[in-house]
Every structure is written in structure tokens, then in C-alpha cells.
Amino acid sequence: MIRAWFGIDQDPFSLENIVLLKQQQDVYDTLKVHCNQGGLCIVMGEPGTGKSVIKEALRQKADKRMVVVSVNRTMHTYSNTLKILCNAFSIDQNGQHVSCEKRLIEQAYALNREGKSIVTIIDEAHLLDIEVLRKLRLMFEEFPKNHNLILFGQTELLSRMSLKVNDDIKSRITFSAVMLKLVSDDIQEFIMAQLDKCGLGHNIFTEDAIALITRSSDGILRRIRNLALSSMLEAVRARTKSIGIEIINKVLIQPHWRNDFDMFTENKQMGVR
């Protein structure tokens, strides 16, 4: 619907063909350096502050020398994590931890001999049992030295690691960052960049509309995306190609836009275009 009405060939405000903001670019650039050197990196932040954008950028922008493996939204048991890693490397499993670990290590060295580095990403890592993380760390210590483990999660992740009993993990952290809420200039830059990506003019959203989005989103990137996308859907319904405060207000009276889920993903599942 949005594509047809606005005459565009890709989805606006999606995670496809990502355009990074400065804060995201800085963290991404640092992670890329660590991805080539190896280490343990942690990226933290409130839900919706842009962690998924960086994670997706690492996946999309990986060059041929980098293998990126993600463990997403799963029961973070050690068995399940090993299973996902084995699937990612196309390794047959027989259900035995030792065998899976051994074959993962062998595959890691085979890729290393081909000149490739491995990046393992674990999402929602604050839900990870610390003993599972400890087991993963011990296994990954057997990987080539340029292997990089990146944990994405909420800020309590570092708090748990700061306990004295977890010094063995915290002492191995090579980089950590906290994603901050966006300020007004960042929000305007984000909206303009998304319009540019789709080939739309900057006048689609009026200045007053952008100001209202800024005030209503509390600087949370996911809320900005949800509100902007919902407003474009409302514009389709209203048969207008200009989004002003009256369109934004029609969205704001609906309860769903403040929920911390991804409107683009939700609409994609419903077949909205």
C-alpha cells in the first residue's frame, strides 16, 4: 500500500539498506575493528535505542572475509546456543556437547585458514544465564584469536558482569558501549535519511509533524520508526501525500504505536505494502 501510494520500490523505515546515524556509525566502526582483531564486545541500551540497527548493519555490510553468525531471541541454554551455532556452520549434530564444541572449533580453524574471521552475535544477552556465557567463553577461547563475540542486551547485562564472581568474564571485555536516546537533530536526520533512501522528498513530513514525532517518541528509535510508518499508513488511508500534525495526531490517539515492537515487522507479517 505504501509503495504503491507513494510510488516507491522499497519499504520506508525498514532495516533494509541501513543508513546509520553518527552514534550508530561510531559504535559500528569500532566493532568492525574488533571484528578483525578478536575480543569480547558488549552493546547495551534500552529497548528500541538502535542495537538491532547496528546488529543488522554488521550482517548486511560484512565483507567476504567475515563470517557473521547470530543467536537471536531463543531460549539461551547452552544446548540451544550450540545447536544454532552448528546450524549456522552447516554442522551435523549428534546431541553431544563435546562433539558439537569440537566440530565448531575445527570449522573455525578451517575458516581461519581460508583467511576469514568469525563474528558471533548473541542478542538479548541480558537474558543469558551467566554460567552459559561462561561455558561459551571457554569454548570460544579455543577458537582462532581473531574470533569476536558481541553481546547485545539491556544495561543490566554489565551490572551482572560487575559482580566479583564474574571478574573472569568482565576482565575479557575489549569494548563496551551504551546506546543513548536520540536528540532532536538526530531524529530529523534519521527521518530525512529514510526518505532519501526511498527516493521521497523531504517535504513528505512537514516541520510541525517532525517536531511532534520528536516530542512524542522520547528519543527512542523504534518509536520514531513506528510513528513515522504508522503516519504513512494513515496518509494512505486519508489519500494524501503530505504528512502534517493532523495525520500524526490521528496516529497518536491509537494505543499501539507506543508498544515496543517493530511496526515494519508486524506489517510485513500482515502483508502490508
Descriptive report:
With 273 residues, this protein is an alpha/beta fold. It folds into 2 domains: 2-13 and 182-270, Helicase, Ruva Protein, domain 3 (Orthogonal Bundle); 22-179, Rossmann fold. It is 51% helix and 12% strand. The protein is built from 13 helices and 5 strands. The protein has a 5-stranded parallel beta sheet with strand order 2-3-4-1-5, sandwiched between helices. Helix 4 runs parallel beside helix 5. It is elongated, with a radius of gyration of 21 Å. The model is unreliable at 269-273 (pLDDT under 50).
Key features of this structure:
51% helix; 273 residues; 2 domains; Rossmann fold; five-stranded parallel β-sheet; 5 strands; alpha/beta; disordered C terminus; Helicase, Ruva Protein, domain 3; elongated
Fold topology:
Elements (H helix, E strand, L loop, with lengths): L1 H5 L15 H16 L1 E7 L5 H10 L5 E6 L6 H11 L8 H17 L3 E6 L7 H11 L7 E6 L2 H6 L5 H4 L2 E7 L4 H15 L8 H11 L3 H18 L6 H8 L10 H8 L3
Question: How would you summarize this macromolecular structure in one to three sentences?
Answer:
This protein is of the alpha/beta class. Helices cover 51% and strands 12% of the residues.
Q: Mind telling me the C-alpha Rg?
A: 21 Å
Report how far the terminal alpha carbons are from each other.
4 Å
Helix content: 40-55%
What is the CATH level 1 assignment of the largest domain? Answer: Alpha Beta
H/E element order: HHEHEHHEHEHHEHHHHH
Strand line-up across the major sheet? 2-3-4-1-5
Instruction: Give the integer mean of the pLDDT values.
Output: 87
Major sheet: 5 strands, parallel
Q: Given the C-alpha coordinates, what overall shape results?
A: elongated
